[in-house]
Amino acid sequence: MNAGHILDALEMIDDQYILEARDRNSLTSVKKSRSMRRALILAAVITALLSLCGFAAYKFGWFDPWLQEPSASPTETVQSAIESQIHKDYTIGVRVRKIRIDKDETARVAAMYTGSELAAERGWTDEYLAGHFVVVWAEYDVEYDHTKTFLDDGYTQQYFYLTQDVETGQWTIIDNTSPNTGAAAPDA
Fold first, then answer.
1. DSSP class of residue 1?
2. Sheet holding 171-176, edge to edge
3. How many CB atoms lie within 10 A of CB 65?
4. Which residues touch 93 (CB under 8 Å, ≥6 apart)?
5. Which of these three, 17, 36, 59, is where a domain ends?
6. Structural domain contains residue 18
7. Are residues 134 and 91 in the same domain?
């Protein structure tokens, strides 16, 4: 073998590797674009499913925001929220039996919040909790259209947690317990 044959063979090998590398890079970029497209489609599908699930949860009453009119009286605020349930398309009827401020539960929950991280996140000082936080107990009857919601109806007992706006004096429901519909209704 002479030097010319060896140089020609090396040139062919070099060219072959360069061509293979070029082809491999173009395949990699095609694979990358396919993976990116698949990731975007997957993200769009997940977003659509989460949106539909959120809408379904609201529609079936799993997420049930209170329609309330803040008031200078915490019991009036709770009464407005319960009575406003009638404006929801899945509610057939509502009747309030009793609403009262529960001083013992207010003291217990306020003590639980005092100095907590949740109170700090919400901007509630210990002084604020002492004067602007209250727990209201409500008993009411509600009837739902079960073709539109899975919520349990009947005689219901429920706690509502309210805070007062210091500037306006208006009480607003910030949270509530799950409705207790398992208790037997007292004679009204």
1. -
2. 91-101, 133-144, 154-164, 171-176
3. 9
4. 86, 141, 142, 143
5. 59
6. yes
7. yes
Q: Are 147 and 125 in contact (CB under 8 A)?
A: no
The predicted-structure confidence for 42-76, as pLDDT tens digits, reads as follows 777 777 676 665 555 444 444 456 778 888 999 99
DSSP 134-185: EEEEEEEEEEE-TTT-----EEEEEEEEEEE-TTT--EEEEEEPPPB--SPP
Closest alpha carbon to 132 in 171, 159, 168: 171
Calpha distance 145→86 (Å, rounded):
11
The answer as to whether 182 is a domain residue is no
3-class SS string, 101-131? ECHHHHHHHHHHHCCCHHHHHHCCCHHHHHH
Q: Which amino acid is at 163?
A: T
User: DSSP H helical segments within 60-102, as ranges?
Assistant: 74-83
pTM above 0.70, yes or no: no
> Given 59, 90, 106, which residue is the final one in a domain?
59
Query: What is the per-residue pLDDT for 23?
Result: 65
Integer Cα distance of 64 and 155 in angstroms? 18
> Is residue 41 domain-shared with residue 129, that is, in the same domain?
no
In Å, how far from its chain's centre is CA 63?
8
What pLDDT sits at residue 17? Answer: 63
> How confident is the model over 147-165, as a mean pLDDT?
90
In terms of domains, do 25 and 97 share one?
Answer: no
